[in-house]
Amino acid sequence: MIQVEHLSKKFGDLVVLKDITIEIKTGEVIAIIGPSGTGKSTFLRCLNLLDQPNGGSIAIDGVNILDAKANVPKIRQKMNMVFQSFNLFSHLSVMENLTLGPIKLRGISPKDAELKAMELLKLVGLAEKADNYPDELSGGQKQRVAIARCLAMDPEIILFDEPTSALDPTMVSEVLSVIRRLAKEGMTMAIVTHEMDFARDVANRVLYMDEGLIYEEGTPQQIFETPQKEKTQAFINRVRSFTYQISSPDYDLYAMNAEIENFCEKQILPKKTRHSLLLLVEELLQIYTPGLHGTRLDLAIAYSEKKETLQLTLESSGEAANPLESNFLPDELGLTIIRNLAEDIEFQRVNDKNRLTVLMRKTL
Ligand code: ADP
Ligand code: MG
Q: In the structure, which protein residues have their CB atom closer than 6 angstroms to any atom of ligand 1?
């Protein structure tokens, strides 16, 4: 359906897309992931000509859309885009937002456009908001209206650019559910997202973008479980990490533990591993806590599915000293527990900070 070959794009001297070649077939759901600034948005914007590529070709059903004679509004309609920031017309009602394009650009009668709009609002669960204005809606509702507006143009493919990034965490799932439903109904979609679990279960192909290229592509299983290239591996490992900042001895232990539990749940870690991890963190923090006045402690936990290990990193400011070798250790027992749970403990001085790295094995 869409054939992209050797696509390139630069802004002044900045080469953002070097050489992108990809084919998207009808009915495919493609997730595009990667660090920010690697050209994911630019790629989508080039596809529907919001940005003009510098080289290469894009063909839809065999027709080159970079041709000077191409009908740009028609192409944008075929490849309609949903943005992070909704981009609804704030002076128009929800209904008017949905009918404007079909009436003006597709020549559909107002009556038919309204019937279709109502049907689409039902699909996204917002039929009762037809007469409301965007300002009267929550973020999740606005994004669902934006999706309905996009569908009103009868696109052949929908391009989503981080559709949930601007939303409150509580509203992410209502938008993802709508996208999942479209996927089930066979809609062709390319979705730039940071929601890895979502990417994993909705996409049939995942593109990892880096260095101006589609650096690695594969099935969700291949990219998330057995990435082949170094940068993909590093990215996947990084998104699998948990970080927490502690800046006072009175930090909220319960909130932190809840976040760690949540992290473990996402990584599908067994119960025993969770308990060991929580215990390890607790014992480590007991050692750090007395010294936490006016300093900061950064805790990071990264899970490597491949190695089946959890790596805890504790970084603290202050004079060079290994906290586990301090003369003021509260109790020997804590230290013994840490030594038993950890497979390896390493102390380093990095950038004027004390870094303790503790490796723990996943236990079943
Ligand atoms: P991503 O979506 O992966 O975060 P973008 O496609 O938004 O990345 O941006 C890629 C790079 O191109 C960034 O360095 C960004 O600053 C730059 N860029 C994007 N749009 C423009 C523009 N209109 N003018 C100049 N630079 C731009
Ligand atoms: Mg972007």
A: 11, 14, 16, 36-42
